[in-house]
């Protein structure tokens, strides 16, 4: 008995040694791959963030420094911010942006939730086709419908109004909002809603008590995306607003034209315009990523 | 009082007819089990009764009232889903009280009814928990509790135990049977597991391809299957089928020639048969007997020893049969064994698969689960 055991020990030991070497090698492989991926990740992040960083840096320079050879050594100044605020009322534009971005998102969600509900839970033969058609409208260049929409707005008195902008942004984001909500809703087990129906829930109660609370992460990330898209939208805001309803994108544009290009002031205006949404995006990024990858891994 | 009647009920999805005219009567306080292979339409039929699927044709009557166009909640039924379908964001108490909340019941009344159901199901310590903090069995009990709270006229169960492990399934099966006794309610239960069907049902409905093959008590289906499908579906391991030839036939019995040349007389009504006709003889594995003088001969292919019993897989020419015998049997693979059966336990099926009517009704054929508890003396006297 004992002889057999002692004979086995070196054997087992040998095989462990034999296994350890390739494992070590593969660990090194994994580590170097991790290192490269980290470097790549940081590289891409810096590349994307660099223009924003440079814009913020420029906003603290004087106009002369702004057009001189790029340098990170300078005496920071707030004069651009003061001047920008003197030339235009930042808060008015910012308020317009907030109202329009959140208003259009709310309206889009109100319209998209029932649409996505019926497509996810009561599909017909044409549901897939309808969804694709809705998304295909996003492929149309907006300038293609600029003239008709401008004329419609002019005739209905919607030019330069927040209401007009909310309507346009809602329609602009609706396809993507419906599409996203549809995918979130489809992930919800149908049984839960049927159990609600057996318990006596009307369609509204089903949505209110069950669907909305259970898909809240998805709805939140859809809403966040819609807010960001609306906030950043420039084409329609530049063409359909002038003074009353102009959001921050129009505010930035107003610094680029009249007296030539003043990079430092333009940078200060841009920094102020993107600051709220940057902070908002930073605070909600976890929710965004969670929502956008929701259902991707089960 | 809750009865259900289905009259020529049809369900059609586009061009496909999945329920092809089902007639069924479910009596008050009866435990009815729909059983059949996957895709036979049993779940669809249950969902139609629940009102979750529309009815393409025929009538669904609950307590005599036509319910085809009545919404699921107004039918007065409650359903337990295979996936439990608990509301994950609500506590156990809120899950169970949700229907009452929707009905506008006061908080007090809700709490009282939930506590009552929780007591029956021993869920009291779990009322504050969310479903994700419960085990499979506890979730199942909450789903049942949610149904109880509604005080429905009929309980519907859609394969409620199929997500549980084997041990828990046995336990829940017993609990459900106990619950049926305690609540004295009408229950309709869908399963593909014939053990659940046999142990729980007062009445089994065997479905295949959207058609009811047979309705009867578990023992009736076991002892008097009306066709080859039911005979094969009910009983485990499934019934053996052996090709035989009619030697002579009359209203008093049918003489058949067995493979290997042996003969036997089966007590079924064979008045329409003529000598030379080909039939199938059906004998359950547990009714085959090892017997040195038996008329059948087979070679042992596989042996499965379960302790209490042993299954021998035998090859007889081109026919394979299973024989269930004593746990201590001494046999080995490739042994050749003689075996036979009591002719009174055998069934004969014609070329269309229909069973020839048996001349003797089995004494337990009409007994159901409820009789087991209400009339033990009647059962014992047989």
Automatic annotation (TrEMBL), chain B:
<dbReference type="InterPro" id="IPR003439">
    <property type="entry name" value="ABC_transporter-like_ATP-bd"/>
</dbReference>
<keyword id="KW-0547">Nucleotide-binding</keyword>
<dbReference type="GO" id="GO:0005524">
    <property type="term" value="F:ATP binding"/>
</dbReference>
<dbReference type="InterPro" id="IPR012340">
    <property type="entry name" value="NA-bd_OB-fold"/>
</dbReference>
<dbReference type="Pfam" id="PF00005">
    <property type="entry name" value="ABC_tran"/>
</dbReference>
<keyword id="KW-0067">ATP-binding</keyword>
<keyword id="KW-0762">Sugar transport</keyword>
<dbReference type="InterPro" id="IPR015855">
    <property type="entry name" value="ABC_transpr_MalK-like"/>
</dbReference>
<dbReference type="InterPro" id="IPR027417">
    <property type="entry name" value="P-loop_NTPase"/>
</dbReference>
<dbReference type="InterPro" id="IPR047641">
    <property type="entry name" value="ABC_transpr_MalK/UgpC-like"/>
</dbReference>
<dbReference type="Pfam" id="PF17912">
    <property type="entry name" value="OB_MalK"/>
</dbReference>
<dbReference type="InterPro" id="IPR040582">
    <property type="entry name" value="OB_MalK-like"/>
</dbReference>
<dbReference type="InterPro" id="IPR008995">
    <property type="entry name" value="Mo/tungstate-bd_C_term_dom"/>
</dbReference>
<keyword id="KW-0813">Transport</keyword>
<feature type="domain" description="ABC transporter">
    <location>
        <begin position="4"/>
        <end position="234"/>
    </location>
</feature>
<keyword id="KW-0997">Cell inner membrane</keyword>
<keyword id="KW-0472">Membrane</keyword>
<keyword id="KW-1003">Cell membrane</keyword>
<dbReference type="InterPro" id="IPR003593">
    <property type="entry name" value="AAA+_ATPase"/>
</dbReference>
<dbReference type="InterPro" id="IPR017871">
    <property type="entry name" value="ABC_transporter-like_CS"/>
</dbReference>
<protein>
    <submittedName>
        <fullName>ABC transporter ATP-binding protein</fullName>
    </submittedName>
</protein>
